[in-house]
Amino acid sequence: MKAAVNAIKFFEHFTNTGLRGKITEKFFEFLLRTIKPRGDLILENLARVYPNSSEIWRKDIRGEVYKNLAWTLAETLALQRSHEQAWNWVKVPNAKIINDLMKQNRGALLLSGHFGNWELGASWLTQNAMEHGHKMHVIYQAIHDPDINEYLIKMRERYGLVMLDKEISVMKIAHMLKTGEHIILLNDVSGSGRVRVPFMGVEATNMPGPALMAMLTDCAVVPLCIYRNAPFDHELTIFEPLELPQIQNHEERLKMVTLEMNKAVENFIKRKPEQWFWLHNRWKK
């Protein structure tokens, strides 16, 4: 919808890190808490993962999820004034892990999810890669609204992020990884693939692609996650590469590698569940 894009552009010019940022956040938080987009689904997902939780707790978490999204919108809009602001807003105590991989020209699958302000995390990672003479790529899924989708693509491309449509072949991704490229993968969405293993303790359908990429290339699989400590104050946590299971049976190894990847993302969510995107239908029937 062009009207929605025009509204976003208005807030993009309006929002900054000061009072205007707070106004933008309050506006979006009020909107989200009033409309409650996918509100029932959020409660269902929370009940599925935390069956012993109370309804009051689940509703409190839902409110915090909307607050996190409101700040993500406000921060991302303010970031458009200058993407170099990411250097000041994000602390990365263990950046050496991915910087060393780039120096070795070793390909890496950067395993993350829709957590905290994932747009800000991608901006920092992209600019850091360029500082080291590399590009940063992300595998993305187009959203249904073509106008908003185009806006988001242009926004990300402005700071240098290379967009890879999720329909790209596994073999092409494998070639990129073998030649030293770094690719961000938001591995917390449901898939129509044949791999069924638990996610957050509940059986879920998973796409086989991520595990296949790792198995075909022996690239580094590096879990990372960005947490918000306060508005415009974040920590990007980068973990040591996963040690993936070595099993002869292909199908069994595919399942085990997928499970290890899921566990890495689960650890992000368990630390601060209110900062995850519970609006997604992760456990499709």
Describe this structure in words.
The protein is α/β, with parallel strands linked by helices. It has a domain at 83-275: 3-Layer(aba) Sandwich (Glycerol-3-phosphate (1)-acyltransferase), CATH 3.40.1130.10. It contains eleven helices and nine strands. The protein has helices at residues 2-14, 19-35, 39-49, 55-79, 86-89, 96-103, 118-131, 146-158, 170-178, 209-217, 250-271; strands at 90-91, 108-112, 136-140, 162-165, 182-186, 195-199, 202-206, 220-230, 233-238. It has a seven-stranded mixed beta sheet, sandwiched between helices. The chain has a two-stranded antiparallel sheet with strand order 6-7. Helix 2 crosses helix 4 (55-79), helix 9 (170-178) packs parallel to helix 10 (209-217) and helix 10 packs across helix 11 (250-271). The longest helix has 25 residues, at 55-79. The two termini are 30 Å apart.
List the topology elements.
Layout: H1 2-14, H2 19-35, H3 39-49, H4 55-79, H5 86-89, E1 90-91, H6 96-103, E2 108-112, H7 118-131, E3 136-140, H8 146-158, E4 162-165, H9 170-178, E5 182-186, E6 195-199, E7 202-206, H10 209-217, E8 220-230, E9 233-238, H11 250-271
Categorize the overall geometry. globular
Radius of gyration computed on alpha carbons? 19 Å
Classification by helices and strands: alpha/beta
The CATH fourth-level homologous superfamily of the domain at 83-275: Glycerol-3-phosphate (1)-acyltransferase
Strand line-up of the largest beta sheet: 1-9-8-2-5-3-4
* Average pLDDT level: 95
CATH fold annotation of the domain at 83-275: Glycerol-3-phosphate (1)-acyltransferase
Order of H and E elements: HHHHHEHEHEHEHEEEHEEH
Helicity range:
40-55%
